[in-house]
Design a protein that fits this description.
Elements lengths: L3 E12 L2 E12 L3 E5 L6 H8 L7 E6 L2 E2 L11 E4 L11 H11 L5 H9 L15 H13 L5 E5 L7 H16 L3 E6 L2 H7 L2 E6 L2 E6 L1 H7 L5 E6 L4 E5 L2 H12 L3 E6 L4 H9 L5
Parallel strand pairs: 3-8, 3-9, 6-7, 7-8
Antiparallel strand pairs: 1-2, 1-4, 4-5, 9-10, 11-12, 11-13
The structure holds adenosine-5'-triphosphate (ATP).
Protein name: ABC transporter ATP-binding protein
Pfam families: ABC_tran (PF00005)
GO molecular function, one term: ATP binding
C-alpha cells in the first residue's frame, strides 16, 4: 500500500472571530505532488504553517510522517524541507556559504552543494553575497537549501511566483525529478498551469474550504459540461463547435465534404474549473 506522508483530518483554524480554514481534509502519498490551489487569502499558507508546527489548528488533526503537528520538534526538520518565503537566508554570507552552513548542520556532503547550485541555476553566483541576489535568485537559494538533505516531504509555498518563465521551467523539471525519486511535495500556488503540469492531485481552496479535489485531468473532464470540439480543416481554418443540433449538422457536412483534417475535444482548464466551482476569478 502507498505510504501516506501527510494527513489533514477536519482541520479548522480561526484567528479571533475570523475562521480561515473550515474542515480541511486531505492526504499526500509518498512520491506525489499535492497542489493546494486558491486565490490570495484562501488559507494555503496557514495550512502549511499548521502542518509544520508553526501554528496550532483550532480543531482537527494534522500529521506529517505520522507525527501529529502538535508534537513536532526540531528533529522533523531532518525529514522535511520548507520553502515559504525568502526568510532564513543569511544575507551577509555568500550563496555557497549559506548552503555550506546548512550542509554541516544536516551532515550533507559538500559535493551536493555544487550539484544543487547548478540545478537551481545559481552556480555562477555562488560567491555573491545573498544580499546581492535578486528576489527570484534568493527564492532559488531557499529551494536549494530546502532540498539539501533530500527530505521525504517538501513544502513549497508559491515556489515560482516572480520567476521568469525559463527559470520556472527549470524549477518544474527539478520538482518532477524530486517526485520521481520518491519525495512528496505539498505545493501551494495560484498558477493553474503549474498545478496541471506538476500535481498528481489538487485541492481547490476557496474561503478556507476545499471546494473540489481530484487529479487535474479528472476535474477538467468532470466540468466539461458544455462539450466543445475544435475542428481544423484541410485549408487550416479552425472552428470551435458545440453539441448543438446546428453544430452537429455543420460537422456532418464537413465530414461528408472531406474537409476535416483533425477534431479535438476542448476540455476546460483548471482555471475554468475553479471559476465554475467558485463563481470567481482566481486573482
Ligand atoms: N497570524 C494571523 N492573524 C490573523 N489573520 C491571519 C494570520 N495569518 C493569516 N491570517 C489571515 O488568514 C487568511 C488566510 O491567509 P493565508 O496566508 O493562509 O492565505 P493564502 O491562501 O496563503 O494567501 P496568499 O496566496 O496571498 O499567500 C487571510 O485572510 C489572512 O489575512
Amino acid at each position: 500500500m502507498q505510504k501516506v506522508y501527510i494527513r489533514l483530518e477536519h482541520i479548522s483554524k480561526s484567528f479571533g472571530s475570523t475562521q480561515v480554514l473550515k474542515d480541511i481534509c486531505g492526504k499526500l502519498y509518498k512520491g506525489e505532488i499535492l497542489g493546494f490551489l486558491g486565490p490570495s487569502g484562501a488559507g494555503k499558507t496557514t495550512t502549511i504553517k499548521i502542518l509544520t508546527g508553526q501554528l496550532k489548528a483550532t480543531s482537527g488533526d494534522a500529521y506529517v510522517l505520522d507525527i501529529h503537528s502538535n508534537n513536532i520538534d526540531e528533529t522533523i526538520y531532518e525529514q522535511i524541507g520548507i520553502v515559504t518565503d525568502n526568510s532564513g537566508v543569511y544575507e551577509r554570507m555568500s550563496v555557497y556559504d549559506n548552503l555550506r552552513y546548512f550542509s554541516r548542520i544536516l551532515n550533507v556532503p559538500k559535493e551536493r552543494i555544487d550539484y544543487l547550485l547548478n540545478r537551481v541555476g545559481l552556480y555562477e553566483h555562488k560567491n555573491k553575497l545573498a544580499s546581492q541576489l535578486s528576489k527570484g535568485q534568493k527564492q532559488r537559494l531557499v529551494l536549494a537549501r530546502s532540498i539539501l538533505h533530500n527530505p521525504k516531504v517538501l513544502f513549497l509555498d508559491e515556489p515560482t511566483s516572480g520567476l521568469d518563465p525559463s527559470t520556472a521551467l527549470e524549477i518544474h523539471k527539478l520538482l518532477l525529478e524530486l517526485k520521481e525519486s520518491g519525495m512528496s511535495i505539498f505545493l501551494t500556488t495560484h498558477n493553474m498551469e503549474e498545478a496541471t503540469k506538476l500535481c498528481d492531485h489538487v485541492a481547490l481552496l476557496n474561503d478556507g474550504k476545499i471546494v473540489e479535489y481530484g487529479t487535474p485531468k479528472d476535474l477538467c473532464i468532470k466540468y466539461n459540461t458544455d462539450k466543445k470540439y475544435k475542428v481544423t480543416l484541410v485549408n487550416d481554418e479552425e472552428y470551435v463547435l458545440t453539441s448543438s443540433i446546428n453544430d452537429i449538422k455543420t460537422l456532418i457536412n464537413l465530414i461528408n465534404e472531406g474537409k476535416i483534417e483533425t477534431i479535438h475535444s476542448c476540455e476546460p482548464t483548471l482555471e475554468h474549473v475553479f471559476i465554475k466551482v467558485t463563481g470567481r476569478e482566481l486573482n
